[in-house]
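From the pipeline queue, job 12 of 40. The input is one protein chain; the requested action is below.

Action: predict structure.
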Amino acid sequence: MVTGQLYRNYFVSIVTQTTVDRLHKVSMMAEKWKAPMSVSVFIKKPSKDIPELKKKLQNYPSLVYYADLHLLFANNTRYPVNNLRNLAIENSRTDFVFIMDADFLPPLGLHDYIQNQKHFFKINQSNQINFKNNLLNGISNQQTQVKENSNIEQKDSSANKIIHTQSFRKNNLNKIDSSGQIDSSFNMDSYHGSASINSLTEDNSNDIPNLKIAFVIPSFSSSELPEFLPDDKEEMIEMVKSNKVTPSNINVCKKCHSPTNFPKWIEAKEPYEIEYKWIFEPYLVFNRSESLPFDERLKGYGFDKNSHAFSMAVEGFRFVVLPESFIIHVNHKSSSWEGPSLDEQQWDALRIVCDIIPSIKTKNNYNISEKLFDEPLEDECYSDNHW
């Protein structure tokens, strides 16, 4: 296949995960994003999925041009959403990553708008006065560097064990046979070597540590056809007012996105910091080198983004909403999930979350008996009070 060429320096890559049958949605995302994407694809049945993948990519030129695909082969597991996310993050062409799910669409021009706000990632004690109208409380007292060896221990049961992973560029599918094996003569270094387009070159010459900033991209949902969704904020607001677009999960889990402060977003002209509260599950742009990986014990449905955002907050991240940005979930029929019902999977995930919360607090020297962000304490965690 023809090697995709990206002829400019890019700042941020979308990282997302999908199955082969949903690649058309990721292709629509690529048509809007028009910048690098790192896409993990879950291969459940190689003999079926690999030929189908090759066939689909012949029809998706934007995906072929912008996206690097990374295949994860698994056996006897629920959908390994966080394994897939970590694989995509690790193999992103840029250090700054934008966490997305496959059913979302960005507006045209979002990459360049985010890039134009990159000075926010350089905030420190010497220049914070320039951002006094954007931040809540100036400089955080929390640690601004990721601690060595601070990763949460990630455990897999034998039933959830990933048996084979491979990462590769989408233009090398012809190197893969139906069993999912890569030709041993294929040299990955020739594709991941000198042609890097990786992020920033500015120096922080005074050695003052920067704040850890994550951009919040406001999340909405719509049942409109993708071709009728807006590409600018003015049109977006009109669709919100006419109820053609609504804030994500507003009727299911209001606290999951309410910290974004949608009324303020409508009026805002400048980026604004928000106060993180538990169960917030924002779609974020951040520097992957500053963040812990997603916890790979979480598989199937439930709490995968919420728990990661909580870990970021405990690690000292500040959350800044970009007012001209948004993404829209294209509503569809409920997806079928492997194994138990979604409700059962969510309760299974909650058991893991109830371990993540005290673990990350302990690793950052916080008292597990005191609340930081309105998160549940141990004796109240395994309940339905989160929603």
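Job complete. Residues 141-205 have pLDDT under 50 and may be disordered.
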